[in-house]
Q: What sequence folds into this?
């Protein structure tokens, strides 16, 4: 199942900036992450209007991101079930 089919699922968003800075935001919905990636994709295509800033919204707060300063973005969904760390090491 793809992220777009699970817009309400939460995950960890990591934004790396051109100046070397990193902003990590937890509890971001797949929908919000998808919107950010869509805006970044539009910026890379000539003659396609795209916003310069994007908001990453969470229930408790929000962040503004200057898209012109973004180098890369990573998004990972949280697991449905808690993972047993011992099982991962085995």
A:
């Amino acid at each position: 199942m793809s992220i777009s089919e699970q817009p309400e699922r939460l995950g960890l968003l990591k934004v790396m900036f051109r100046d070397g800075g990193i902003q990590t935001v937890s509890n971001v919905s797949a929908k919000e992450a998808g919107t950010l990636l869509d805006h970044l994709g539009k910026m890379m295509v000539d003659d396609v209007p795209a916003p310069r800033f994007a908001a990453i919204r969470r229930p408790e707060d929000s962040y503004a991101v200057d898209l012109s300063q973004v180098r890369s973005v990573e998004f990972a969904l949280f697991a449905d079930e808690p993972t047993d760390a011992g099982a991962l090491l085995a």
